[in-house]
Amino acid sequence: MAMPGLVTAVIGALRIKRVLGWVITLRRASPPLPVLLAGMVAGTLLLLALFAPQVAPSNPLDLASFNLADSEIPPLWAEGGDRRFLLGTDNQGRDMLSAILYGARVSILIGGGSVLVAALIGVSLGLVAGYLGGRTDAVIMRIGDVILSFPTILLALLVAGLARAVFPEAGNPRNVPFVLISAIAIHDWVQYARTVRAATMVERARDYIKAARVIGLPSTRIMFRHILPNVMSPVLVIATINLAGAVLTEATLSFLGVGMPPTYPSLGTLIRIGNEFVFSGIWWIALFPALTLVILVLAVNVIGDWLRDRFNPKLRQRA
Amino acid sequence: MIRIILSRLAQMLMVMAAVTAVAFVIFRYVGDPVLIMAREDATPAEKAALRQQLGLDQPVVVQFGKFVARVATGDLGNSFRNQRPVAGLIAERLPATLELVLVATLLALLLGIPLGVYCALKPEGWLTRLIQTVSLVGISTPTFVTGIVLILVFSVWLKWLPSFGRGDVVRLGWWSTGFLTSSGLRSLVLPSVTLALFQVTLIMRLVRAEMIDVLSSDYIRYARARGLPASYIHRKLALRNALMPVITVTGLQIGALIAFAIVTETVFQWPGMGLLFIQAVSFVDLPVMAAYLLFVGFIFVSINMAVDVIYALVDPRLRTRAA
Q: What pTM does this model have?
């Protein structure tokens, strides 16, 4: 029951007409200049990060490739800069530019992963809660209430910390991304669930759903094929806004030392490493990854903000 | 009114029960404290003795009962790391965190409300655009980045302000305060600004949105039609209603601030509860983790309840609905 449900869910969510509909709505909206700019910045960063192994000058994960003699070289334009290292090097002689590209890749993958997991859980639970109502609804939403009464970062810290205590393997760099994705998604699904639940309750009372029930379609089919496509647009908005938040949470966890290890750094880990050198005035090790992080999150936030306003009927009327 | 309080109280107890259960599970099942505490070369007999000493050899139900009874009396066990009572550790760190959070909240309100009102009253002004752009940058900047940049500029480059610790503190009974010494106050500047910045943007955006909403409502239009002075309408009629959600959010954010203080305290080596917690996480010091969770959970739940009650007090509609 669960698997076909999931498959119909994905098909339902991806129904091409719908997606085309969104694209047309967005095009008609003709985004203002800052949003277009943000889109370009986010797109460029995304591409650079995803193709980091192809575009980066060196491989920051290959310990043998860098030389301690090259350590703590300032960026190119500062005094003592080196042509080989545009943004300087860290304390081990690692090229900062390459480290940042690889780090952004890790950050984006973990952020995107947690958005995906949170959306999948949240949308499913929201549909079920909104459609079935009653006790199922009450249980799901109360759990959500309790979770939401704690801030993301506290819950994520707890999950990441506990995972380490329970599974010794959780500290393995291979497994850390999954720990981080769960740690972030465990909080973020609630928002999707709440929104989808409210929208589902509205849809459920409509005639086409009544008709579907009268002809005896199974509940899962009604939920995922008939209701889901009609409640998806707010999910898109939440997902965009959440992506920014998830990237920030991952960075914070890594900065605090419970995230990605220095051998496989995300942007947060790079900032953590750089933080130790700030006091000696070696600012570039911390500042460039921090700048990349802020630009990335800012760009996504600008897009998310605009999307939210587009899909908010109250604001659309006023404009 | 009483019904609201009672239903909130029931909800609060439920959440606390959940948190206590989680804390107990952490305490009891996560990791093996004996393996963590015992020396590498400890014999099985020594380990068993330690297990008995910690009460880990008793049935689960008994352990949970004992756990609840102990927590109720404020006994939160001993830290694995330095063998001191956890309650004492938290009490020692509490003033540092609360003072930081208090100052940050005040800063956030003092900056956020006027900025939000301004943006709502002059939606097309260039200053509004500027404020909103800066606020978007603010909301996209993680706390630790703000902290590092402030340290770099004001401590490392300008050498104006200290970058770590609380400075000199004065003891007032069990409370230690940094408010009374100049080094204490100077140490407070960077961490509290760091912690407040994120909240400023949040409060500002909220005040702006609420204010715009209220200003377009019928009763304000009516007040304008009656020819009441604009300052009266804005201050007495609009702002008052726009501030309602601000009460809620500020209240709820105090909880979030305590959590975010973990990050700020790490950056500035501020000796508060957050630093205690993050050290506990890295040393797998489970009693401290569990106690912090319980304590912060209790604070959150109390704040939630207080906010609901204040809300009911401020909004007469909620009162009549309950009656």
A: 0.81
